[in-house]
Amino acid sequence: MRVYNFSPGPSMLPLPVLERAAREMCDYNGTGMSVMEMSHRGKPFMQIMENTQNLLRELMNIPEDYEVLFVQGGASMQFAMIPLNLMTTGAAAYIDSGNFAHNALVEAQRYGRVDVLASSKADTYAYIPDYDVNDIADDASYLYITTNNTIFGTRYIELPKPKNGIPLVADMSSNILSQPYDVRDFGLIYAGVQKNMGPAGMAVVIVRKDLIGKAGANVPKMLNFQTYADNNSMFNTPPAYTIYMTGLVLEWLKEQGGVEGIYQKNVEKAQILYDFLDQSEKFRPLAKKEHRSLMNVTFVSPDAETDARFVAEAAKAGLQTLKGHRIAGGMRASIYNAMPKEGVEALVNFMADFEKTI
Amino acid sequence: MRVYNFSPGPSMLPLPVLERAAREMCDYNGTGMSVMEMSHRGKPFMQIMENTQNLLRELMNIPEDYEVLFVQGGASMQFAMIPLNLMTTGAAAYIDSGNFAHNALVEAQRYGRVDVLASSKADTYAYIPDYDVNDIADDASYLYITTNNTIFGTRYIELPKPKNGIPLVADMSSNILSQPYDVRDFGLIYAGVQKNMGPAGMAVVIVRKDLIGKAGANVPKMLNFQTYADNNSMFNTPPAYTIYMTGLVLEWLKEQGGVEGIYQKNVEKAQILYDFLDQSEKFRPLAKKEHRSLMNVTFVSPDAETDARFVAEAAKAGLQTLKGHRIAGGMRASIYNAMPKEGVEALVNFMADFEKTI
User: Fold this and answer.
1) Which residue, B212, B232, B255, sits at the end of a domain?
2) ipTM surpassing 0.90
3) CB < 8 Å to A192, chain B
4) How far does the CA of residue B155 sit from the closest CA of chain A (Å)?
5) Coil, strand, or helix at residue B12?
6) Domain of B327: which CATH number?
7) B227-272 pLDDT, tens per residue?
8) Do A72 and B72 touch (CB under 8 A)?
9) Which of A164, A282, A332, B181 is deepest in the core (most CB within 10 A)?
């Protein structure tokens, strides 16, 4: 009996993907072994690797002058790798739009001057802060943003456009492949795969080729993007099974009509939930209307006890992991690509019934 | 149809482990979700985490004053993390007994003075080089060794015993849990899990508590052992499925009689293969007899063309991935814990038949 799992990540995966992984577990494609057991230098895995990379290139329309890298350590490792590789001037600008954006800029301060262009921290990150790209220092190596703020349920509707060719760097961990983006608007995009792409244990880094190869001599080899670019992300043993699972998820996404197709479904799913919240007299959405995320919907009931009761009773009804992050409080429904519309409808129906008991 | 897979890593996993993973893929233990989909902060995964850690502590008899950490990036990341965390004096001693030992010392040179205590590089690493622990400099922060050399098929039979409390640091990637070790002989043990413990994508680090917490301020947060120790290896999302699979392998290992039990089987398996090689008039073992590995058995036929024919014909007979590493040449049979005795017997039988065709 599968449940609807509203976890912010790791999160739901498409059931057909899991079923296929189970079928192929002991014998992948007639090789007589599991993908977990294969040499990463052998043909079967090399094909899996190529397939995963090609699907990502196709689905995101990634230009040839961008590398696609697979790196272990998740987004938190990127908080260090980005300044270590890209902060060639010793300075960078950051927009502080959420907890992960904040952690990223704190980590970057180890390596150079961090200019906080704007922050909504004082308002519990309930919105994307106003910023003026003219305030970016001339010597900034890049402007860093978080396109979707998982904890607070906000996202950029329009992207900042830095002047003078300063590259835009984006943490897209919680909304990659959920809506169309033009990769050319970015110098670098990265995402931990555990929300919209696969199981935890890897980040995808999409980076313009001219931005790499400039890391200092004391940067660890495994933290240098050049190491990954030079070795097709296989300088050492890659997280092979995670790459395989990511490939299966990307195949599924292609069947859903690709990013454009899933985007329509995501808009529809989010609308169902926001429409309910906007008319509800007991539940209240937390994110500012203009910056609402399509992936993470945050809301509260009238008080903390009712929040707790809601989360507990929803779980019993098969609607799981709805508790909000401790920093934001209340509830959060994460409705990534793999959450079916039926899950969102079941949640709204449950909320409508629960509302009568408040 | 499963094959016997002699891959050096990723490598064979116990079939019952894979079968269980397949069964639990879509619904773990009645949770209604895959382990891949679970919040790492929720109870079901926390129990998986605790179970994996406890099993490792039990199987290796790890004392309480050692941390058990799960770190992404594999052994190559440890090549940097070890000097960044432990080289507090600005110097360390390394024994250059193989390719990975060499890569480790090259990486360490970014961070301080590396004294090469001994090297067998000039002899294609066919043995563990002679060393004298009295040659270790007084200011060395640690002595670094690789207990088993995957590419060349050698291992330390006796461990170096550095004086003056200088800690021994060991890369045990290719023989952890294959034979009994006393953790107290080491300051730090680490191993990429993809040979004897699980699928690729994680290293286990077992480190004496007093050795950590001394990294410099400019060390990336994700490269500081203290970050992992302070957060039960969950500062950020851990490689959750890899931890789960590792736990399943450790449960299986416990059923095999633990490390002592599997060691007896490993000795028996290696003996079958070395006995055959020692009496063969056509095949010749590559590693020096006194330093033979129990995990990786390297050998050659009379010439390179016959080597290639052997590898190709063996593969057709279901004995796969026997090609040696390009640095060592010839053949390599990796016979980790999960390789059944039947696989080694099948290989020896095939070699006996093949020998007649040379």
Assistant:
1) B255
2) yes
3) 237
4) 21
5) coil
6) 3.90.1150.10
7) 999 999 999 999 999 999 999 999 999 999 999 999 999 999 999 9
8) yes
9) A332
